[in-house]
TrEMBL record:
One of its GO terms (cellular component) is cytoplasm. The lineage of its organism: Eukaryota, Amoebozoa, Evosea, Eumycetozoa, Dictyostelia. Pfam families: Sina_RING (PF21362), zf-TRAF (PF02176). This is RING-type domain-containing protein. Keywords: Cytoplasm, Metal-binding, Repeat, Zinc, Zinc-finger. It is found in: Cytoplasm. The keyword NAD does not apply.
Length: 224
């Protein structure tokens, strides 16, 4: 019995875009899509390298034409290996795992890109449909990369930032708060600046008066 919590790996064969490609590249031994390195007998019958090696070491003859394939008679099939690398496959993000059926299913909202086996890894590294976790602590949401920006804008776990004239809030909340009360913020800021300038003026005036008083006393003592 399979473990329902264990997700089966998505195979290349499941990702193949055209079923006829699988028919042409099916291994006659394991009856699955051939896996590189593909090997062949001297007549040209192909199979997975591991399958052909197993048959060569046990039966010793090609399963299709019965020609001997033991003792190093197998050849690497360069042409078929190239075909496998150019095989057109769906991006892994074109699929979603159904835990009820324990199967991978095509996702209509997934990545629409069809790439090749050779270029698949490069595509996946930059695919906008890669699942990413929300960066805010406490949030366990996983979304496609191209959907994360809209989630972040309204995530309840966003870090709170202070408004200089009001309560803390998320960035969108503070931005909206400032837009709604911009004129009030400007007035409050002007009043604060006026208070600062008034206090500074008072300090300067007091300092000047004190300095003049000291100078007068020094001058008076000098005369008398």
């Amino acid at each position: 019995m399979s473990n329902r919590n264990q997700i089966e790996a998505l195979t290349i064969e499941q990702r193949v875009a055209c079923q006829s490609d699988i028919d042409v590249l099916t291994c006659s031994i394991c009856l699955s899509l051939m896996t590189a390195p593909v090997k062949q007998c001297t007549v040209g019958h192909n199979g997975c390298g591991s399958c052909m090696d197993e048959v060569a070491s046990t039966i010793g003859t090609c399963p299709q034409c019965r020609i001997p394939i033991s003792n190093g008679r197998l050849l690497r099939s360069t042409d078929v290996n190239k075909i496998l690398l150019s095989l057109k496959i769906h991006c892994v993000n074109h699929f979603i795992y159904d835990r009820e059926s324990n199967k991978w299913e095509k996702n209509s909202k997934g990545c629409p890109v069809i790439t090749t086996v050779e270029k698949s890894d490069n595509h996946q590294s930059t695919c906008k449909y890669n699942l990413v976790k929300c960066p805010f602590q406490g949030c366990n949401v996983n979304l496609f990369e191209n959907e994360m920006a809209s989630h972040i804008a309204q995530c309840q776990y966003q870090e709170k930032i202070p408004c200089p004239f009001g309560p803390n809030g998320t960035k969108p909340e503070v931005d909206q708060h400032i837009r709604n009360l911009l004129s009030n913020h400007i007035r409050i800021n002007q009043e604060r600046m006026e208070d600062i300038f008034f206090d500074l003026h008072q300090q300067i005036t007091t300092s000047i008066e004190l300095s003049l008083e000291i100078n007068r006393n020094v001058f008076s003592n000098f005369l008398f």
